[in-house]
């Protein structure tokens, strides 16, 4: 069992391991919330390779490797790198859209019943 320190080395070893024995290769993903780490493991029962990270930056690379291995295991051609990034773009745009709408609505309009800078006093017994 070998832990790779470099993502490039792990990626090339993972694709080579799968290419050597595609029918026997298994792919495992472990997330450890307590340590905030992600462990990727590929094995063909003879050789096992692992990669451990705590970096959020690796998640994009992991998603690309996951798409590549999933396509290879399904017998489809591997997706283009731009296609994987394009899948993330609508989600990012959708997340940013409500924020943009909030800013536009707050510029000239006020919510009904909202006072312009005045606080309401509570009515009740003194």
From TrEMBL:
It comes from the Eukaryota. Residues 94-126 are annotated as: Disordered. One of its GO terms (molecular function) is 7S RNA binding. Residues 94-116 have a biased composition (Low complexity). It holds the Pfam family SRP9-21. One of its GO terms (biological process) is SRP-dependent cotranslational protein targeting to membrane. GO terms for cellular component: signal recognition particle, endoplasmic reticulum targeting. Residues 5-72 form the SRP9 domain. Residues 117-126 have a biased composition (Basic residues). This is Signal recognition particle, SRP9/SRP14 subunit. It comes from Tilletiopsis washingtonensis. The lineage of its organism: Eukaryota, Fungi, Dikarya, Basidiomycota, Ustilaginomycotina.
């Amino acid at each position: 069992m070998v832990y790779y320190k470099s993502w490039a080395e792990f990626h090339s070893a993972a694709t080579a391991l799968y290419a050597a024995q595609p029918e026997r290769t298994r792919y495992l993903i472990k997330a450890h919330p307590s340590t905030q780490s992600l462990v990727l493991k590929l094995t063909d029962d003879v050789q096992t390779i692992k990669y451990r990270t705590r970096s959020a930056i690796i998640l994009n690379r992991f998603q690309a490797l996951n798409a590549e291995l999933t396509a290879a295991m399904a017998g489809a051609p591997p997706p283009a790198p731009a296609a994987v990034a394009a899948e993330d773009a609508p989600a990012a745009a959708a997340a940013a859209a409500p924020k943009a709408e909030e800013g536009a609505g707050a510029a000239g309009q006020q919510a009904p019943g909202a006072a312009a800078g005045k606080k309401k006093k509570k009515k009740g017994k003194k």
